[in-house]
Write a structure and sequence with these properties.
Order of helices and strands: HEHEHHEHEHHHHEHHHHHH
Helix content: 40-55%
Low-confidence stretches: 1-15
Strand order of the largest sheet: 2-3-1-4-5
Mean pLDDT: 86
Number of domains: 2
Distance between the termini: 79 Å
Length: 340
């Protein structure tokens, strides 16, 4: 009986990890921006698309390896039909970063692919992600409550292997307020854990880390470095450096959600031409977006501090400016000096 169970388990695992048949006449990516969410993936996709030797998929988030894998490689290849003679061909799906079952599938099919990750302050990333989910009507809970449920789920939910795929597929489209809805605010900001997961499957030389701070402080230098990694002309200067992802008022979403539901709203958004969506977003841009309170920053830091310390070792970088306890101390010292 035990041998039978083990054999069935082995067959299921082989089926899950099975390499999808690749048509050599089709074009496929040689790089993927894998996230995490709310870490400038949209901007990188936009900037790279301006390079004459780079082709980026028209659909920014194909979600092929997480949601559409069963449709096969010919379905995936449609995203790259217009790549022509581009040296670098890629797409961007931010949720790939924290989904180990996706990493397995990419490794099975494209073992030599180049991967791009972009990291920012994980506290701001978590809050930004919650703001977007809340604005879209997908999140019903206040920030702290949503994080607390996420913490609880993290203790018993896995995103590895076949079980991870089932969890991801079964919870996609579940926007309930209770624990039945999977939340990944925390996992998407555990950058050291994310890196170690991908380094288990790919050589570190295949993985490029972009820091949002570097992109802000030295845009051209950072992009030139990325171009070299992708094997294209690193002297090219991005002509349009516009910030394409920003906080905007999503009141229209609330109205359409009431009329058509969250899924109906998503369908309408997907049907809307990009130039119209871009115009609307700019007109709805908020001058003073919501800020994460110091109390919540300290709460989140307690969750992330060990992972940040590990990331500092892996990348040999100092991320003390992410630490809100130091910010709080500096503020207190400044106030004392002003009083004296």
């Amino acid at each position: 009986m035990l041998l039978f169970i083990l054999d069935c388990t082995s067959q299921l695992q082989q089926k899950f990890n099975k390499k999808v048949s690749i048509n050599t006449d089709k074009m496929y990516p040689n790089f993927i921006i894998i996230g995490p969410p709310k870490c400038a993936s949209t901007s990188l996709h936009f900037y790279l698309g301006q390079h004459p030797e780079v082709f980026t998929a028209k659909v920014k988030e194909t979600r092929f390896f997480s949601l559409h894998y069963s449709k096969g490689m010919d379905f995936y290849a449609r995203n790259f039909d217009a790549a022509g003679t581009a040296k670098a061909i890629g797409e961007a799906t931010p949720s790939y970063s924290f989904l180990p079952f996706v990493a397995d599938r990419i490794k099975q099919n494209f073992p030599d692919i180049k991967l791009v990750l972009c990291f920012r302050n994980p506290l701001d990333r978590a809050f930004s992600s919650w703001l977007m989910q809340k604005g879209m009507g997908k999140e019903q809970l206040p920030f702290r409550e949503a994080i607390e449920i996420n913490l609880k789920q993290k203790g018993y939910i896995t995103l590895e292997g076949e079980e991870g795929e089932k969890t991801w597929l079964n919870t996609t489209g579940n926007f309930s307020a209770d624990e039945s809805r999977l939340r990944t605010y925390i996992q998407a900001g555990m950058f050291a854990d994310i890196l170690k997961s991908w380094y288990k499957r790919f050589d570190p030389s295949q993985v490029k880390i972009i820091l949002l701070d570097d992109l802000k402080n030295d845009f051209d230098g950072t992009m030139s470095n990325l171009f070299r990694f992708l094997g294209v002309n690193d002297q090219f200067i991005i002509p349009n450096k516009e910030i394409v992802n920003f906080h905007f008022d999503r009141k229209a979403n609330k109205l359409t959600n009431k009329l058509f539901g969250v899924k109906g709203t998503r369908f309408l958004i997907d049907l809307t031409p990009k130039f119209i969506k871009d115009r609307l977003k700019k007109s709805w841009k908020t001058k003073d977006p919501p800020r994460l309170s110091m109390e919540d920053r300290l709460y989140l830091w307690d969750i992330y501090k060990d992972d940040v310390a590990e990331l500092e070792k892996i990348l040999d970088r100092d991320f003390s400016h992410w630490n809100p306890t130091l910010q709080k101390e500096k503020k207190a010292v400044t106030q004392i000096k002003e009083q004296v």
